[in-house]
Amino acid sequence: MLLTIFGCKTNKNTFIHRGYHNLTARFNGYYYATESIKEGEDKIRSTYKYDYDQLLPVFLVPTNETAKSTFPEFDKAIKKSSNCIQRHTIKDKKGNEIYTAGKWIDNNWNVVGISHFYKREFFSGIEAFEYVIRSYKSRDKYKAMIWLARSYNEIGAPSQAEPVIGLLKDDKKISKYAKKELPAVRADYYIKRGMYKEAEVALQTALKAKPSKKTRARYSFILAQLYEQKKENRKAIQYYQKTISAKPDYDLVFNAKIKQARLFDVKTGNVSKLKRDLQNMTRDVKNKEYLDVIYYTLGEIYEKEKNETLAINNYQLSVRNSTQNPKQKALSYLKLGEINFEQANYTASGGYYDSTMITLPKDYKDYDIINKRKTTLETLVGYIKTIQREDSLQRIAKMSEADRNRFLDKMIAKIEEEEERKREELENANAQNQNPNLNPNIPNNGLPNLGDGSKGNWYFYNQTTLSFGVNDFIKKWGNRKLEDNWRRSQKTLTIESNSPENDTTEKGDVITTNKTKIKNKKNREFYLPDLPLTDSLIAKSNIKIINAYYNLGSTYKEELNNNKKAIASFEDLNKRFPDNKYKLSTYYQLYRIYTSVRNQPQADFYKNKLLNEYPTSEYAQIIKNPNYAVEKNSQKGEVELFYTDTYNEYAANNYSQALDRCVTSETKFGKNDFSGKFAYIKALSIGKLKGADSLEFYLKQLQALYPKDPVSKQAQDILTILYNLKHPSESTSSTPIINNTDSLVLDLNSQHFVIALCPDNDELANAFKSSLATFNNSFYSNNDLGISSTLFGSTNQITIIKQFKNAEEALNYIENLSKDKTVFSGKVTAGLFNILAISSENLPKLYRKKQISYYTPFYDDHYKKTK
After folding, report:
1. pLDDT tens string 837-851
2. Of 20, 425, 589, 612, which has fewest CB within 10 angstroms of its CB?
């Protein structure tokens, strides 16, 4: 009692006081705190999940997500040790700690640091360890140094761990604990620095220190992985065997065996026995959750034996049995994708790559390469499907009406048969679910009791019905990520452009084709809108096929390096469409491909075709002159200097000299990057010399020749001024302004609308909109065209059909509409309507003017020529 009363004081440094505080600090604080740390470490070991495709960690440290589960144990340790430090630290009269008085205070500080380390509060832990190293002279500072080095390694700062490891390595008085742990710390340091050879030596030294069985198994597994990286398969197999011999948890044993199997030399070893052993493993009940890995390994063995059929079968079995390991499923899909890719089965390969990317972790080593190939295959398959689809549609469209109806009826019958089959499967599954004893082969073990004496009556507890549902979903939707808008293959939202001023969207005023589109797949009318039943739609379908063929060949050649497929695509294109717009380019591509595969006769064949049919083309120049590209690049510098001098002549009001230089540039340099700029200076110079009419003519010529050149917009600004000068009654200002916001802009590649103006007569306008909706539904059902109308000025109504990708599509629509006799019939006669194409940028300007005469000269000058 006296010892307790007098010994609990912390401001006296006597034998009795030291004895009391050391005793209580050890057993009331340090002992219970270390027990809590052991509990936390056991929990970490029991829940830690290894990634066997990466190097295993030398030390088991929880992740940010898993660390929270061990917070109670380590918080308890921190609390115990912190209370102990507070109550049992012996201080002098000034309140300063006497570091040599307490034997267990430094131990408790280490406990605090270790607990913070496992909580991933590394900087708090580092602070505690540095305090011990700096303040105490006992051998416990070596433990603090070990954990300090581990902390620096863990936060990704091995360079800061290096001097600590160096001090420990050179210190001859190092403690037994530090001496035993140092090799493992060094191995961790070397691995994080990518110094794998040094890590091997350190791990071998760590194994000699006789760690626990589980730790020894992990070190052996890491060594095996390091040797596997170096392709030293024999040594790797030996260390995987040492892992198995250490008898760790089954998960580590299983993966060591699998690694051994994958390293097996099928040319020299007993591969038949290996395959039998793996097949036996599939029948072992404790390997149920590992079936996907076993089948994947069998697939790799068959692949090494060049037996691709059995390899594919086993990879498919791996996919089918992969229920808990998304990464393994992704790797199995990847193997299937790679095999089909090598076999040039690109459609199948694309599907497997698509499935791979759904579950493949983004930190996988080759993620970007795999994703790029997946994107390429998606594009390639898209071209193939476009050709197949358009060919099929054209084939059906060319049938007689009776044959077409019979064909569609057969399609509908197949759809009905498939629906009936699925319905019967589901009914059988439900019947089996309600009477599980009818099939003794289907166990009902492990299903939760629902409280009515039966098990698994709920749909999601029955594996049979669940598998039917999953398979049906995958057939319809494919493998989709769990995310919003999972039904959409493209997640990007499509937002309709804002309507121009006074455009109404009230009910009855907007008619869309979707409202009249038939959605029943068992109705013939559902398929008719997609068929190209007119010459213009056939031509449009052919353009899609031509583009797809050319892009297909280019993808085969440039991205997949498949010359054979590229040749077939380009030659099929030219055979089917002899006058296609890519003929010149395909000749040159075929010439290059045949040259690269050393088929000189075919290379000469396409070389001669190119030179004879397109003698003045750039491709012909390249063939004739191998240095053509180099010379052309050097010529660019000469053209730029020539243009600069020409511009300077114009700026100095030397218009005749500037005009002469512009004319000279046409013959001296031909078509080049500065052609549009020369044409602009030429027009301005002629305008200065000959007047406004000549200026207007040459500016319009410039726009026709160089519509995409930036100078085309500058030309339009001047043309607008000239127009306003000629039509002052339509001008909004007496003084023309070049940057007038109402200036019409020519951009044929921008989004376009079709507008139809008619007299302000509701009966006429409504009849036209109704006929127009029927026309759109019949021939443009896939374009989702919308129709809106409103009053335009005081005497007209304007109907807007929206929207088209570019001017070409809008003009094609107008051409097809004008030929349709069903739209313009009865009261709706073509003569009452003024139908024009207009860009989305120019439409608001037309609304502000409220005069069609403001736009028609611009339309006549630019769109009728294009048309």
Report:
1. 999 888 888 877 777
2. 612
